[in-house]
Amino acid sequence: MMSTTKYERLLRRLPQLTNGQLFWLDKVVDVFECPHEFKIHSSDLFDAEVLENFGDALRIHHAFSIEPFSKDKFEYVLEQILKMSGRSADLASKGNRGHDITINGLRVSLKTQADNNLKRDKIWISKFMELGRGQWTDNPEDLKGLLSLFLEHMAGYDRILSLRTLQKSPDWEYELIEIPKSLLETAKFGTLDMKLESRQLPKPGYCHVFDASGNMTFQLYFDGGGERKLQIKNLLKSSCSVHASWKFSLTS
After folding, report:
1. In a 3-state reduction of DSSP, which class is residue 110?
2. Is the dihedral of CA 84, 89, 90, 91 positive or negative?
3. Three-class HEC string of 37-88
4. Residue 146 gets which letter from DSSP?
5. In contact, 32 and 60? CB cutoff 8 Å
6. Taking the C-alpha atoms of 246, 170, 2 and 42 in order, what is their torsion angle to the nearest 10 degrees?
7. Which of 65, 64, 60 is nearest to 77 (CA)?
8. pTM as predicted
9. What average pLDDT does the structure give for the chain?
C-alpha cells in the first residue's frame, strides 16, 4: 500500500507532466490492471513482497517492449527489489568472470533463457562461460583441460539462478529456477567426446553426465566456434528447484 506521503507527492507532480509523459505513465498503469498470477514455489530468496515487486518490474518492462527480460535487467532489478525488502544484495563489478551478484553474503551466478525452442522440462544455457585461448585443437585429450577450466570456474560462486521465459507476448510466463551447483560439479565424472568429424578447428566436444541409473542428466558442450564458449544442454528441470513464477496477459 502506498504511503500517504508518496501518494500526495505523486499527485502534486502530475499537473507538471507533459502530454507525452502522461501517455507513458498511463501505459505503465494499464499493465497493472491486466490479469496476472504470481506464485512462490519454494524459495529462501522470495517472499510475497519480493515476488510482487519483481513481477511488477517484469510488467513495466513489457509496457515498453515485446522482447524477453534480458540478463542486465535481471541483474539490476533483482538487486533493487532485494534491497527494497531489506536484504543484502550487491552487483559484482562489470566484467567479473565469476559471480554476478552477492546476496546475503553468497556469490550468485545469474542466467537467462528465452530461446524460441525452449523446452519446459529441459534447461539450456547458451553461454555458461568463455573458454579463452587455452590448449584446444583436434586432440581429444584437450577436452580434459577444458573440463578443468569449467570446474575451476564453478569455484567462483555459490549458487546459480536462471530466469526462464516460458511463454511470450501477449500471455507472458516467467519462472526462476535454481540449478544445484553440486549437480554441475558431477561433470568431473562425465564422459568426454570430441566431434572429430566436425570441420571446425578447434574441434567441438561434449561431456555427457549420467546419474547412478545410467540416465543422462545434462551435457557440457564445448563450442568450437569463434566464441569458444561452454554451453550447458539438456539439463533436466526435475533436477532443479523452482523459486517462483509469474504469469500475466497484456492487452492492447
Report:
1. strand
2. negative
3. EEEECCCCCCCHHHHHHHHHHHHHHHHHCCCCCCHHHHHHHHHHHHHHCCCC
4. H
5. no
6. 0
7. 60
8. 0.92
9. 94
